[in-house]
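Side project, low priority. Logging it here so it doesn't get lost.
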Amino acid sequence: MNPPALLLALIAAASSATQASPTNTSCTPEAIAALEAAASKGDFRAQFWRGTQLEIGECGPKDLERANSLLRQSASQSFPPAVHVLGVILRREGKDTEAIKYFEQSAQLGYQAGFADIGFTYGQGDSPVRNAVLSYAWLTVAIAREANAPLRAYLESSRAKVARALPESDLAKAEYFAAGLREKFSSVPVWSDKQ
């Protein structure tokens, strides 16, 4: 993943982790046991949080198999941060086509980082799905939906770089696709963990 996309993914993950975290996510044995118990009972937030801890090796050694299982369980309950993180993992593994499916699913659930990460994935120079027109279009939708001014500015800067590389005819196509995407997602509310 390129540095700007990694930066946005980390910002989004930190934001979603704050919103999606159970009461106690410390690394004490009691907190870990409580997360495991809640996860085993199907609590999608606990599954997401514990899966994320195991994915990055927080609170103990990495356990990618268990992390993936917990994240998939959480995602199967349509928890947007879990759906998105599965996309991030797939993109990290070089499975961009599969990652885009998860990013779009998280976008359909209103998860802001999903919109941006589709745009970034299509914009990666080494990606097998590279498509500057679609990168521009998805970044345009991400900008329109983003309330956080610094993140919006970052997205605008990223889209401007994509636009500079597009011929005028492709820029018109990108604007056309962006209008269609804005219409498609106009009725999708921005996800909040308070829903």
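Brief comment: The two ends are 31 Å apart (CA to CA).
Revisit when time allows.
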